[in-house]
Amino acid sequence: MKITVMTADEQILTLDIDRDESVENLKALLEVETSVPLQQQQLLYNGREMRNAEKLRSLGVGDGDLVMMVSNALPASSPAPAANNLGFNPDGSAVNPSAFQQHLRNDSNMMAQLFQNDPELAQILLGNDLNRLQDLLRLRHRQRTELQRQQDEELALLHADPFDVEAQKKIEAAIRQKGIDENWAAALEYNPEAFARVVMLYVDMEVNGVPLKAFVDSGAQSTIISKSCAERCGLLRLLDTRYRGIAHGVGQKEIVGRIHVAPIKIGNNFYPCSFLVLDASNMEFLFGLDMLRKHQCMIDLKDNVLRVGGGEVAVPFLHEKDIPSTFLDEERNAKEASSSGAQASSGNKEKDNTPKGGSSGTSQGNPTQGPDFEAKVRKLVELGFGRDAVIQALKFFDGNEEQAAAYLFGG
């Protein structure tokens, strides 16, 4: 390991030494580097004097740590006040933070090393907040202490009784944790973007002539618009409340109705679109799988565009800076509202007022029961719809498969 030694005359030394070496051997090495006799050296680590017989490991000295070297060759009347000011308290904080800060500031070589190896400490040293400096020194001390504790535990486990069940469990947990830590370190090096927040996909659209930022979500069955957004777009006059119900997803949202068709503008082209209208204050407009499939959309992540109509129109996905901050929570709310958006509970629909299919009188028995009905259910489920939504849609239209499919696709 490498440690940094600061002498009383402000000389900075970087030494490569084994953690199992004694303090006496460290002093011998320093005697060669500084010409200060071993007997006249006093080493301080975290404000505590290091005794000759002690091992560096037992003192908690780790890679990159700072050790102060004081020469005790001074007369008894001169107790080296500068060195005392540069010492450390047992909690790792500086005895005199102002003197410690000024001392490091005056050493251009040391500051250059800090900017390269520890920019956080270097920036705090250049500032005027001594409390932040003390807090950082205490934090580093706690981290070193915790690291030393873990290493001591690992060392103890290596010498544990192989027939001790509890010790073997701890060894197993330590090995597993080491694997996790190595996996995490590899991810930081080779896949750092995995730790960043993923911004969802938004595009600029116009709904009935009103500009909106649409959340593109291929995981939502239905295209959804909030009641407030539908009102702003002048579409509430078209709201069919016969389709009210409950959208079941991660949570539940009230469906206040359905708008069967309205124009949306993507790029320079207009497309017909149908919406479920939800009473969701935190969700504005979600472009779901039903319309993505209807208009043959392709999510092109290579070129970062949404292609519509089989590629006739390509609109870019918005960058994070172009997405209003209020939309960041919308992603979660939209997911909760629409992960099963077409699965509306029929308990709130008036059966006598619901549009029916065209198979009345032609089928024998109940068209929503029997093997034929189950075959229709399986066929529609294979298209990607939830089983409950398919059954509900088929019952809606008295077993008419085509009309149920049109309803599920938003037709």
Automatic annotation (TrEMBL):
UBA domain ranges (all copies): 370-411
Q: Where is the Peptidase A2 domain?
A: 212-291
**Which residue range or ranges hold the Ubiquitin-like domain?**
1-70
Offer an example of a GO molecular function term for this protein: polyubiquitin modification-dependent protein binding
Record has DNA-binding as a keyword:
no
Q: Which Pfam families match?
A: Asp_protease, UBA, ubiquitin
The UniProt keywords, alphabetically, are:
Aspartyl protease, Cytoplasm, Hydrolase, Protease
The highest taxon in the source lineage is: Eukaryota
Q: Segment Disordered: which positions?
A: 331-373
- Subcellular location(s) per record: Cytoplasm
Family affiliation: Belongs to the DDI1 family.
Protein name (record): DNA damage-inducible protein 1
Lineage, opening ranks: Eukaryota, Viridiplantae, Streptophyta, Embryophyta, Tracheophyta
